[in-house]
């Protein structure tokens, strides 16, 4: 019997109590035959399957209670985790200030595991106590991706898990397995089609908005196909310049057929 997924990842949800970790879990589709369960030890897990670049990635998401007496649980489960979601409540500054404790605990028992910072309850932004910029700076300092989400509006939840899965698979070297079969976005397909028929020097003459031209130039310079065109054009320019320099030298020194004319 064929597997229902291509990759299986274990993800750990950590954060203070009442930041809405169960809200996040409840907003995900259940991708397993067993129902989500809660054990007496203070942990609960749920499985869900996401589609990532044409591959089915099954996530086993574990939620730990945010109370201090469950720190031993984090020590136990973080060892086998391939991804960490750190959750705080944007309407509760104390939950954000407590992230250092959770981050230290995770780094001690699961060093180098990819992490994503998630600010929950974006639908209550009018009660915000943690600025988005502050969270982004914190995530950048600790090399984490950063999302603000809302289970109520189903906003950015799946995107945050997809980004964590991508980071985890990349870390384990799995991404290269299907990179050649990666499903391209419509934007990338359009850029590839345009760059195939032109080069970086003629993009400015296209009847397109300036922002699109800027993106195309960036894509063209990083695309190997267009980069070859640039290199060929550069070689042609260098060749012409060399010929002009040689002609100028001959005229200046009256050189003809390898002899100097006095």
Automatic annotation (TrEMBL):
Keywords: GTP-binding, Lipoprotein, Magnesium, Metal-binding, Nucleotide-binding, Palmitate, Prenylation
Pfam families per the UniProt record, alphabetical: Ras, SOCS_box
Cofactor(s) recorded in Swiss-Prot or TrEMBL: Mg(2+)
GO molecular function, one term: GTPase activity
Domain SOCS box as annotated: residue spans: 173-222
Statement: the UniProt record of this protein carries the keyword Cytoplasm: no
A biological-process GO annotation: intracellular signal transduction
Family statement drawn from the similarity comment of this UniProt entry: Belongs to the small GTPase superfamily. Rab family.
Name of the protein this chain belongs to: Rab-40
Source organism of the structure: Anopheles darlingi
């Amino acid at each position: 019997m064929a597997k229902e997924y291509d990759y299986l990842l274990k993800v750990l949800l950590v954060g203070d109590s009442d930041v809405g970790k169960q809200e996040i879990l409840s907003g995900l589709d259940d991708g397993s035959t067993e129902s989500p369960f809660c054990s007496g030890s203070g942990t609960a897990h749920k499985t869900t399957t996401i589609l990532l670049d044409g591959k089915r990635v099954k996530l086993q998401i574990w939620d730990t209670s945010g109370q201090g007496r469950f720190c031993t649980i984090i020590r136990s489960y973080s060892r086998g985790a391939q991804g960490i979601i750190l959750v705080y409540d944007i309407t509760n500054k104390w939950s954000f200030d407590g992230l250092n404790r959770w981050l230290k605990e995770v780094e001690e028992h699961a060093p180098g595991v990819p992490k994503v910072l998630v600010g929950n309850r974006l639908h209550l932004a009018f009660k915000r106590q943690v600025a988005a910029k502050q969270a982004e700076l914190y995530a950048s300092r600790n090399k984490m991706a950063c999302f603000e989400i809302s289970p109520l509006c189903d906003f950015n939840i799946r995107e945050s898990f997809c980004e964590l899965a991508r980071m985890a698979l990349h870390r384990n070297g799995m991404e290269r397995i299907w990179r050649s079969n990666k499903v391209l976005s419509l934007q990338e397909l359009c850029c590839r089609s345009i760059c195939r028929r032109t080069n970086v020097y003629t993009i400015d003459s296209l009847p397109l908005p300036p922002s699109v031209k800027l993106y195309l130039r960036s894509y063209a310079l990083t695309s190997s196909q267009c980069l070859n065109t640039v290199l060929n054009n550069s070689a042609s320019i260098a060749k012409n310049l060399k010929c002009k320099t040689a002609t100028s030298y001959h005229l200046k020194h009256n050189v003809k057929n390898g002899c100097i004319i006095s």
